[in-house]
Structures are given as structure tokens and as C-alpha cells.
Amino acid sequence: MTAIRATNLSKRYGGTAAVADLSFDVEPGRVTGFLGPNGAGKSTTMRMILGLDRPSGGSVLVDGRPYAELRHPLRKVGALLDAKAVHGGRSAHNHLLAIAQSNGIPAGRVREVLEIVGLREVAKRRVGGFSLGMAQRLGIAAALLGDPEILLFDEPVNGLDPDGILWIRTLMRKLAAEGRTVFVSSHLMSEMAQTADHLIVIGKGRLIADTSVQEFIGRSSQGYVRVRSPRLAEVAELVKVGELHPDHLRVTAMSTLEIGALTARAGIPLEELTFVQPSLEAAYMELTKDSLEFSA
Amino acid sequence: MIDILRSEWTKIRSVRSTVWTLAVTAALMVGLSALLTGSMKSTADGPVNAEQAIAGSLLGIMFAQLAMATLGVLVISSEYRTGGIRTSLMAVPQRLRLLTGKILVFTATSLVVSAVASAAALGVGLAITQPPSLPTNDVLMAVLGATLYLTACGLFGLGLGTLVRHTPGAVVAAIALMLVLPQVATQLPGAWGQRIAEYFTTNAGLLLVGQSNSETLGPWSGFGVYLIWVAVAMIAGAVLLRRRDA
Ligand SMILES: Nc1ncnc2c1ncn2[C@@H]1O[C@H](COP(=O)(O)OP(=O)(O)O)[C@@H](O)[C@H]1O
Ligand SMILES: [Mg+2]
What we know:
The complex is a heterodimer.
Chain A: E1 4-13, E2 16-26, E3 31-35, H1 42-49, E4 57-62, E5 77-80, H2 92-102, H3 108-116, H4 132-144, E6 150-154, H5 162-177, E7 181-186, H6 189-195, E8 198-203, E9 206-212, H7 213-220, E10 224-228, H8 232-239, E11 243-244, E12 249-251, H9 256-265, E13 272-276, H10 280-295
Parallel strand pairs in A: 3-7, 3-8, 5-6, 6-7
Antiparallel strand pairs in A: 1-2, 1-4, 8-9, 10-12, 10-13, 11-12
Chain B: H1 2-13, H2 16-43, H3 50-57, H4 61-82, H5 84-91, H6 95-129, H7 136-164, H8 167-185, H9 190-199, H10 201-205, H11 219-243
Helix pairs in contact in B: 1-6, 2-4, 2-6, 3-6, 4-5, 4-6, 4-7, 4-8, 6-7, 7-8, 7-11, 8-9
């Protein structure tokens, strides 16, 4: 069964449409990246999935039901929204214990998740003194408490050091490999490229793309061949289809092999002949360009 | 529901500020009782009678009521301040069940702490004043009244906290409704003005502890009127809690 299904989901705050007519499915067994520039409506969508914000229109179902109808929701869905949203006066252990008790999760599980996220040593310390990285781990521990099949992470790597980022990435891949549904938001394409199998891209609250990562790169822009030569003008004349820049020629309609053969026959020396793969970042920028321009 | 009660109890007991506020409230009541009955005893010509001794012992309730109201506010407003309310609602998405859990756990905590504090304040005050005769019924009634009154004040705070969601705002609302406006109301002119004043929040509620006067309300009916105020705040808070985005 589809883990999360949004149907014509909309949310207005006063005059602004934070989410507009958004429909998508999130499937189990893979990491689904939820990508969009800041202010695109990712957090708002996640809050609606979790029953925190009420949609202005449309609906979103978790495992076929509205979130609020789940009996012990944390055993089905775990979520990390804002790692700093904890009472600083409570110890990590008591923070997790209160959450566990509310869903009938045995207290022993608290120790397990603290172990998993590497916070066992600081279990008795007040969370007010935690660094952002530790708070992030605590938030993930809370998400894992109920051993849920569906996991939501809102910008989990924000403000983390490279070690922490790698740790979260590995964890998400592992959770998906176990057959769970992992839905993770980010405003950074590069981040998603390394973690996600599938992408749901939004801009200004609207769906821009719902595709695999591979397809996404291919669809948005093609690569090109960059040619540099002391006799660049002659090369340009020879290949005809190139686009001449001050220090190089950009060719999209021919392969490196074809260009190389052509220039070799004409005896023109080359400094560089490279196929330039479009970066994911570039592909993403191009796709969300319009939604950014509008908001500017 | 038992799951939610366990969870809310863990939340209350695991924050040092709550535990401290409760301890300070109790200490304040006992301390003020000693202070006031002490001066009562030394300035009195003859022996202090039971009625005066009990009233003097419980005068600390005027401070304790605000401490309890603040604590009630904090039970929910601190979750809004930290953002922890979202975690709570993700765990218990049926919002009224969550609020009910908070009400029950806070009520139980407050009843116990208020009973202990009131009994201790009375014990100290009566030991100091040594009234010649001491009707047991009056003493028990004073402890019961103070306990119920303080708990109602705490629930008033919890209702206002749910309504306002913002600690300073809710505490100011509590002070206005429990201290300032009841005083202002006594200045209202005419028979109607007097009636309004008597029915106004703590003016009615304090009848139960004998710290207020009324021509139309008795101790229990006065307390009943106060509970209606508390219920209105709580219901308004509950309605908004259900309706608003978290
Ligand atoms: N509670 C709110 N009240 C008013 N506007 C909001 C609220 N939450 C979000 N918004 C607005 O909705 C839009 C989407 O925000 P958000 O969902 O936080 O985007 P993202 O998480 O993708 O950065 C933004 O324009 C934001 O200002
Ligand atoms: Mg966001």
C-alpha cells in the first residue's frame, strides 16, 4: 500500500498559498527526496501529513487513513520536524520516555534508540545543553522510538558537520533498505542526489517534478561538449552546430568522438575536448527557476 | 488514556522548574502563616480565636493562587514556547485526549501539593496562635477549601494557557482575571455592581476559604461560580486547540 498519498493538497495562510493543489504518492522501500527552494512549502506539507496543520483543501492519507485516526501513531510514523523543539530542562532519557509512554512503547526501547543514535552516554544530561548535532540525533531517536514503517525528516542535515551528515545519510539508506518508507526534505539538490532514489520537487507550493533521480537529471538539461583550441574559429566553422564562447566552443549536437575525428582530419590541434555532464544542482536550478523568479 | 497520563506525569516531574515552583509555593504558604500568626499573637490583647487563627494561617493563599495559576499556564504554554507541542500532538493527535490527560495529571498533582501545603500552613499557624478552642470540622474544612481553591486556580491557568498559548500573555491574563479585575469590580456602583463583584472569579472562589464576603453566595455556591469561570476558560481553550494549526 502507498505509504503517504496527498491528493490536491492545499494550504493557505491568510493571503499566501503555501501549498497549492499538490498530489503525490510516497512509496515504501526507497528514500523519497522532497526538494524545493526555501519557502516552497515542504515543512507545511509535512505538518499536514502529521495532522498538525489542517489542509485548506484536498487531503493527505498515511497508510490509507488520516494521521489523526491512527491509534498509536508513533508505532506507524516517526518524524523529525525541528530538532530544537524540545524542553531544555528535561534529560534526553526523560524526553524520550514521555514520548514512548504516550504510545505504550516499553521504556526499554528508550535505551535502545539512545544507543542507536549514539547518545547513551549523555542520556541523563539536560537537552538544553545539547549541540545542534546532538539535538538532531535526539530528534531521530524520537522518530525511531516506535520502530515505525514510515519516517519523515524535515531538513535533517541542516547545520550538521560532515560526520553527522554522513551518519544521517547512511541511516536513511539503511531504513529504506529495510523496506521502510523514508520521506526526507531538503532545499539542496546535492544533498538529495546522494541520498534519494526518487524525487518530488516543488516550487511555490506546486508540484514541479515527481521522478527518479536519474530521470530528473536527464529531463531538465542535456550535457554538452566543451572544445578549446588555439584555432577555435576554424573549429567552429568545421562543426557548424557549435556555440562560440570567448575561450571555448560549446557543442550539444555532436559527440566527442565525432568532433575529434573532424578536427583530426583537418589537422587542427585541440587543447581540450570534454563531455560536460550537467550537475544536479544546475538541473534543479533550471527547474525551479520560475518558482524562484516569481517569489523574488 | 492511561498511556497519556503516564506520559504527562513524566513531563511534569522531569522539569526542575515545576518541582521548584511547587516547593516554593508550599514554603511560601507555611512561611507566611508563621509570619502572620506570629504577629497576630504578639499584637493581640487576649487569646486569638479559632476563626482568626485559621484565616491568618491561610493568608498565604493570596500568593499561592498565582503560583498555582502560573504552573497551570506552564503545563501547556511551555510546550508552545519550545515547540514541543508538535511532538505531543504527533504522539497524541486526538487533541482533546491530550488536553484531558494534562488536566487530570495536573489536578492530581495540585490536589496533593495544595493539601500538604495547606495542612502544613494551618499546623504551623495554629501551633503559634494556640487558640483556646479548635473545632476539628473548621480545620478540616479550611484544608479542604484551600486545596480545592488552589487547584481551581491552577486549572484556571491551564485553561488560559491553552487559550493564549504564550506564557507571559497567559500569566498577565491570569493576574488580571484573578487579582486586578476582581478588585476593580468592587468599585462598581449600585446593587448590580455589587452583584457582579461578588460573582467575579476569585471574589466568588475565595468564599470557600473565608477570605471574601458576599450577601448572596455561600462558600460552596461561590466556589461553584468560580468553577464556571474556570470551565469557560478551559472550554474556550479546548475549542481553539482543536481548531487551530499547531
Ligand atoms: N504558520 C504560518 N503562517 C503564515 N505563513 C506561513 C506559515 N508557515 C509557513 N508559511 C509560509 O508558507 C510558505 C511555505 O513555507 P514552508 O512550508 O516553511 O516552506 P519550506 O519548508 O519549503 O521552506 C512560506 O511562504 C512561509 O512563509
Ligand atoms: Mg522548511
